[in-house]
């Protein structure tokens, strides 16, 4: 199985290569001053890569442009090397990567703009055979960077950072006496105040209770500008606010359902909250900073999480959204597994990025509103997927699901298996895949065009497709199905399954304008890319 969504380096999705002296050979020239003298090379690995010229329908093109990326996000930030492979001379390069980089993504571009991507392991010396390509095939889509636009992020509770000087000195916590638990807000425990502060520079550890509900202050707020470390924390009506520069680490966090208004947990921009075992339900969490769950996050019973434009949410294991829970993401969310069930919803807003490193399971009566960018390794869908912007899925299976493509949106997939699934596509939408129902099992699927028919929607299958009697897939309306029906007699699309104006062609003829929401898809017939001759060596930048 190809791992097109291998861990995307925290959630910024950029793991830039750094340069190192590998001996000053022509393939790895020295760049003076590119790396600090005290740099720890144990955090890096050296890689030497050679890429052969591609084979295009049995022939060899005069040249091909080679780009090597350190991430499946084929963006400039992740570019490790770039050059040209010629018929008699493979492309070679040596460079240094972050030690955590497991795979490289080798993109080959033909003179007519056709692209192919291979994933290879980032281990020592790597020899990449030339890609087997077909001229004028539609290029693979990539996760293009989005220019920030208006967001569908709903209104969420907001807090203002308090003036540290305004706190009663008795409500400023700089230490917790060993063996004691501080009950905040109650007149009979510690000190009664509506607000408490752990100031910048203070490092506090011990026991705190934020149950709230006691007289005289029912819903006290604990602001943390310093560092707070707790083995466990229970939050009832009280609130925890991590201020800019503040760092909070909690082993077990329990948030009780409560009538308190606003957010039970509020992380300001540049604040950091790390939790080991969260048990949260029926409240609200707002993250403007960095929220890390080192394990699983089970969201249930109507819990709402707002990950705002500056928010980075990372879950190292499974995120479960269930029992009418909602998550709204306008920043960046990275999870290993995402499971949505029991009326749960995931809203990925216009400027957001969602990365699922392993499995995404979408059960019935659930929905993903995909308005930003999403990169998912494996998806099993039984609910509703709104494809409003670029979505990349390596392995996609759907059973009784619904896919709704908005105009100019793109879904880029590898292997696709659909059964009793409906796909609605608006003008200019594009759904590319390598294989469609190649295991010869699925059927009862319908792709239908909706709205204005200029331009058509495109369904592009680059390798295998199987639609036969008993395994029907119907295409109706202004849809161009791009597939070479003559390539393999065992894998064909019956033309009588194309109705109401749907057409099939061996190569794409519909011109779809490049945009961020279709993955930055190139024109159908782009001008040949000029052959690179030489590159300037710039300190601190990758080069070949």
> What's the rounded overall pLDDT mean?
84
Tell me the structural class: mainly beta
From the spread of the alpha carbons, the general shape counts as globular
Largest sheet: 17 strands, parallel
The beta-strand count equals 41
The N- to C-terminal Cα distance equals 30 Å
Percentage of residues in DSSP E strands: 35-45%
Fraction of residues in H or I helices:
under 10%
Number of helices: 0
Any idea what the radius of gyration is? 27 Å
Q: Topology, pairings included?
A:
Elements: E1 44-51, E2 55-56, E3 63-69, E4 79-86, E5 91-98, E6 103-109, E7 115-121, E8 125-128, E9 132-133, E10 181-183, E11 195-198, E12 203-209, E13 221-224, E14 227-235, E15 239-242, E16 247-255, E17 265-267, E18 272-281, E19 284-287, E20 290-293, E21 297-300, E22 304-307, E23 312-321, E24 326-329, E25 332-340, E26 345-348, E27 353-362, E28 367-370, E29 373-381, E30 384-387, E31 391-399, E32 402-405, E33 410-419, E34 422-425, E35 430-436, E36 445-449, E37 457-465, E38 473-476, E39 479-482, E40 498-499, E41 503-505
Parallel strand pairs: 1-8, 2-9, 10-12, 11-13, 12-14, 13-15, 14-16, 15-17, 16-18, 17-19, 18-20, 18-21, 19-22, 20-23, 21-23, 22-24, 23-25, 24-26, 25-27, 26-28, 27-29, 28-30, 29-31, 30-32, 31-33, 32-34, 33-35, 34-36, 35-37, 36-38, 37-39, 38-40, 39-41
Antiparallel strand pairs: 1-5, 3-4, 3-6, 6-7
């Amino acid at each position: 199985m190809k791992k097109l969504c291998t861990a995307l380096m925290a959630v910024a999705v950029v793991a830039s290569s750094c340069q190192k002296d590998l001996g000053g050979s022509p393939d790895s020239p020295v760049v003076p001053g590119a790396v600090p003298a005290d740099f720890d090379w144990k955090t890096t690995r050296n890689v030497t890569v050679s890429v052969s010229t591609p084979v295009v329908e049995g022939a060899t093109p005069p040249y091909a442009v080679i780009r090597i990326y350190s991430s499946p996000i084929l963006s400039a930030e992740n570019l490790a090397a770039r050059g040209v492979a010629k018929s008699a001379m493979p492309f070679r390069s040596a460079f240094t990567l972050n030690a955590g980089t497991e795979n490289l993504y080798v993109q080959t571009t033909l003179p007519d703009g056709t692209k192919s991507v291979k994933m290879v392991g980032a281990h020592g010396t790597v020899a990449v055979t030339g890609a087997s390509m077909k001229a004028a095939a539609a290029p693979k889509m990539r996760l293009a960077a989005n220019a920030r636009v208006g967001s569908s992020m709903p209104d969420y509770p907001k807090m203002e950072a308090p003036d540290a000087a305004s706190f009663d000195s008795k409500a400023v916590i700089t230490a917790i006496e060993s063996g004691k638990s501080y009950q905040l807000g109650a007149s009979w425990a510690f000190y009664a105040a509506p607000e408490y502060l752990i100031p910048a520079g203070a490092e506090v550890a011990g026991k705190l209770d934020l149950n709230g509900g006691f007289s005289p202050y029912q819903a006290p707020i604990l602001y943390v500008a310093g560092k707070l470390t707790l083995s466990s924390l229970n939050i009832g009506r009280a609130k925890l606010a991590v201020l800019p520069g503040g760092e909070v680490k909690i082993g077990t966090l329990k948030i009780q359902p409560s009538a308190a208004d606003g957010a039970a947990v509020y992380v300001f921009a540049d604040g950091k909250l790390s939790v080991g075992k969260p048990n949260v339900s029926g409240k609200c969490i707002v993250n403007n900073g960095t929220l890390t769950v080192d394990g699983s996050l089970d969201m249930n019973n109507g819990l709402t999480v707002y990950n705002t434009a500056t928010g980075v949410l990372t879950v190292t294991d499974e995120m479960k959204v269930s029992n009418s829970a909602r998550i709204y993401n306008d920043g960046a969310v990275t999870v290993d597994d995402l499971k949505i069930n029991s009326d749960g919803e995931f809203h990925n807003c216009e400027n957001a990025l969602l990365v699922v490193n392993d499995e995404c399971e979408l059960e019935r009566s659930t929905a993903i509103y995909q308005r930003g960018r999403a990169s998912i390794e494996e998806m099993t869908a039984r609910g509703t997927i709104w494809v409003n912007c670029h979505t990349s899925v390596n392995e996609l299976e759907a059973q009784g699901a619904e896919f709704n493509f908005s105009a100019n949106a793109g879904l880029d997939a590898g292997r696709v298996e659909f059964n009793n699934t409906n796909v609605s596509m608006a003008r200019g939408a594009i759904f590319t895949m390598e294989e469609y129902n190649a295991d010869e099992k699925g059927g009862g699927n319908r792709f239908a065009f909706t709205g204005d028919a200029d331009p058509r929607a495109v369904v592009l299958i680059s390798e295998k497709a199987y639609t036969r009697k008993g395994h029907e897939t119907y295409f109706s309306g202004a849809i161009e199905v791009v597939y070479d029906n003559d390539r393999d007699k065992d894998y064909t699309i019956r033309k009588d399954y194309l109705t109401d104006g749907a057409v099939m062609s061996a190569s794409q003829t519909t011109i779809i304008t490049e945009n961020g929401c279709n993955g930055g898809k190139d024109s159908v017939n782009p001008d040949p890319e000029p052959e690179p001759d030489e590159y300037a060596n710039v300190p601190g930048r990758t080069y070949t």
